């Protein structure tokens, strides 16, 4: 989450007039994240999140995201529910941007996830996959391997500026993954979150209470979602792999959905793919985020360190399975 687009008091009042949620009491931007403009909105009827979708989000995808959250909520998975305006539409426009109001989800995002929280997160991820199993809409992964050459183009110098010799390593990652069969052709697929980082997951104590920010959700390999979470939850700030966190995350997932043999075999490659995807998008954000944006882009080197681990991993046992 972040703030790129400023909303005036007059524009907000006019926007809220189309809803039955009362008048604004407070309105504050959220600085975390890098994608869209987000605000905590408190009205006379309660607390909400208001999101304005920025340039990376394709407006054509927004009905998919809204329908997915409605489907998950209807199937018992805790996530923000889009609020419909008086005309029944959840998606509207504010300050020239597509915009949506969603319900507020209670809980805290962990700064330093514990093994117990990782186990609960793994369970929650599998429950999300189960709740979305009969979701009929399909969306291709816009940030899958086919997009990576375009993200990488003309950025070798930027990588070497961050860390001398890094560009050659990234070139090697791109080549190795391209040489492997696309995982989506061979592994069980379904609807995945694709961005379930700690700041997108809520807990009360060690109990997982729900997930937010479904704006990268897509149809892809289910185990790829698990690999994304291993990257996000099982590495220390210095780049070391936290085996206990990883083992608990995988165990929590398998307590609901057992991984197939081919998913287990593919886990090191999937983890490498996930790390490369986030390295590349972070590299783009690092160089292109406006200086006056109310957001600090994430350091791509965090994922360069993860990639270094994945290059040496031999099997799923290295991740705690």
Task: Write a concise synopsis of the structure shown.
The chain is of the alpha+beta class and 321 residues long. It contains ten helices and nine strands.
The major β-sheet equals: 5 strands, antiparallel
Proportion of residues in β-strands: 5-15%
Overall form: globular
Rg for CA atoms = 20 Å
- What do we call the CATH topology of the largest domain? Aminoglycoside 3'-phosphotransferase, Chain: A, domain 2
User: Number of helical segments?
Assistant: 10
Strand-pairing-aware structural class: alpha+beta
Indicate the low-confidence ranges by residue numbers. none
Helices and strands, in N-to-C order?
HEEEHEEHHHHEEEEHHHH
How many discrete structural domains?
2
Can you put this structure into words, describing what you see?
The chain has 321 residues and is α+β, with helices and mostly antiparallel strands. It has two domains: 95 residues, Phosphorylase Kinase, domain 1 (2-Layer Sandwich), CATH 3.30.200; 205 residues, Aminoglycoside phosphotransferase (APH), C-terminal lobe (Aminoglycoside 3'-phosphotransferase, Chain: A, domain 2, Alpha-Beta Complex), CATH 3.90.1200.10. It has a five-stranded antiparallel beta sheet with strand order 1-2-3-5-4, sandwiched between helices. A two-stranded antiparallel ribbon has the order 6-9. Helix 3 runs antiparallel to helix 7 and helix 7 crosses helix 9. The longest helix has 28 residues. The radius of gyration is 20 Å and the shape is globular. The two termini are 32 Å apart.
């Amino acid at each position: 989450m972040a703030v790129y687009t400023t909303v005036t008091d007059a524009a907000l009042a006019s926007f809220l007039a189309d809803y039955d949620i009362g008048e604004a009491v407070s309105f504050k931007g959220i600085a975390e994240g890098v994608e869209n403009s987000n605000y905590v909105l408190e009205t006379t009827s309660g607390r909400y999140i208001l999101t304005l979708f920025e340039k990376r989000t394709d407006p054509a995808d927004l009905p998919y995201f809204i329908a997915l959250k409605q489907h998950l909520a209807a199937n018992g998975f805790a996530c923000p529910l889009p609020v419909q305006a008086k005309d029944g539409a959840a998606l509207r426009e504010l300050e020239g941007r597509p915009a949506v109001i969603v319900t507020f989800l209670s809980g805290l995002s962990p700064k330093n996830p514990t093994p117990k929280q990782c186990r609960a997160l793994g369970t929650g991820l599998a429950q999300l996959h189960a709740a979305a199993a009969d979701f009929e809409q399909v969306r291709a992964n816009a940030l899958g391997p086919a997009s990576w050459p375009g993200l990488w183009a003309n950025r070798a110098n930027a990588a070497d500026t961050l860390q001398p010799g890094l560009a050659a390593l990234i070139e090697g990652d791109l080549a190795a993954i391209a040489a492997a069969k696309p995982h989506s052709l061979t592994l069980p697929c379904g609807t995945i979150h694709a961005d379930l980082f700690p700041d997108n997951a809520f807990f009360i104590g060690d109990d997982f209470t729900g997930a937010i920010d479904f704006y990268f959700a897509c149809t892809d390999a289910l185990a790829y979602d698990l690999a994304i979470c291993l990257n996000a939850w099982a590495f220390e700030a210095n780049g070391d792999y936290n085996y206990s966190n990883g083992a608990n995350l995988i165990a929590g997932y398998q307590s609901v959905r057992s991984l197939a043999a081919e998913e287990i075999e593919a886990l090191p490659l999937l983890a490498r793919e996930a790390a490369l995807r986030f390295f590349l998008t972070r590299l783009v954000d690092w160089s292109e985020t406006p200086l006056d944006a109310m957001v600090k882009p994430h350091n791509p080197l965090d994922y360069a360190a993860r990639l270094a681990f994945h290059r040496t991993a031999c099997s799923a046992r290295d991740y705690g399975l």
